[in-house]
Amino acid sequence: MSQTLSQTRREDLSSTAGSTLTQPSIYVVLEGERPLSGGLRAPLHNVNELRIGRGPVSSFRLEDDKHAVLEIPDPRMSSKHARLVREDGGWLLEDVGSTNGSFAFGKRTMQALLDEPAVITLGATCLLFDPEEAVPEGTKMDVSDAASLRSRPRGTATLVPAVEHTMPRLVRVAMSKLSVLLLGESGSGKEVLARTVHQLSGRQGAFVAINCGALAPTLVESQLFGHVKGAFSGATRDEPGLVRTSSGGTLFLDEIGELPASAQTTLLRVLQEKEVLPVGGTKPIPVDLRVVAATLKPIDETPSFRPDLYARVSAFVHRLTPLRERRGDIGLMVADLLPRVAGDRAPKVRFAPDLATAIVSHGFPLNVRELEHILSVSLVTSTEDLLRLDSVGDALKPSRSSHVPDPSSRDTSRKEPRETSPAHLPARAAPRPLSEEDLSLKEELTAALVKTRGNVSEISRTMGKTRMQIHRWMKRFGLDPETFRS
Q1: Model confidence at 160, in pLDDT bands (50, 70, 90)?
Q2: What backbone phi and psi angles, to 5 degrees, belong to 427?
Q3: Is 187 helix (H, G, I), strand (E, B) or coil?
Q4: For the domain 164-319, what is the CATH code?
């Protein structure tokens, strides 16, 4: 039965909008043959069947009320490669006779149950299917692609609805004089976004970035607020300090939670009075100050951080989503980073299926900074423009909760060496003990798989059950139809 947006609703504690809806969606995350393409997202809330294959350009179109077509210009992909089918309240991925095979959950498959987010590799293209993506209420149900986002300021482009929902407010605040506090994990792009806030503000002064954790404790006040000649030993001339240097522009205080208590007191006065008194000085100097601060974790309840200063720097709080929670944007980020790390070589670079799949499947504990590192390493170590998984060494080594199988397919269109398509899968819960009835059903199902050589459709007809139910039983009993087909 077709699912509509109104059928599933849940609260989104991270959004001021109050609630989210869930809907199935498909992302073209990373095209190995065109890594600069940036990606595409299409909602599938009204679709019962999506046919996927090679086409002249990346496109998604509805053929009628319930059928859609996704085309990708991937020479490794067949013109009719695979399809996603909604059946019995769930989704199935089916290979439709492709040359290079379809991969899901880290292995080649003819038919797979997709009851959780899954990385799918078709040819050299990695897709992400989410049967229940969280979408803020009121989000437009349109197809979005990288081309429509090219005019966005750096750090604000996204295909992920939950992230996109937060961007208009940030852009409006950036054009005001309000202070901004950015919360995000290490490597999530806080300084990139701070520079974008400065750019959008239209302020003509400098963008001055300070790592508060790296300030010398004995010199922090003179570094921030300046000093006059002779204020202390070694003060041979007047210095304006970083706060005055940023006057008329933006002062970015990275890791503001590390700011020493004495400097917090002085900074609070600077923000209140809009003037700074240099160390050793007697006359305050006016400053036109706009502050953007950043921290790894909330500091509003940190005992060492002044609550009155927090109130001054947190007029607007923006939380950066970690990369593992916005995997659909990996292609956008690759398209942004690759020209920066590869230079003129970027348009020639291609990703082999194994590397593309490993990147999209990776957990990225160090976020965008880790992605940039992976790209840099592969470009330096690879002697050709086709980058492969072995070119990154241990950079994409899976954690103990991940699994990297070794499926492979031969690309007949390019006559190149065989490529593997691994995927990193989350650890699954241990199965509960089977009852006698379940054991009997497992034996019956196993016998049917042996007899039909893993033909799920035939088993479905014989047992009088939907294919979806057969797949659910196989998943519960740990039976893989692929092992019976050989």
Answers
A1: very high
A2: -65, 140
A3: coil
A4: 3.40.50.300
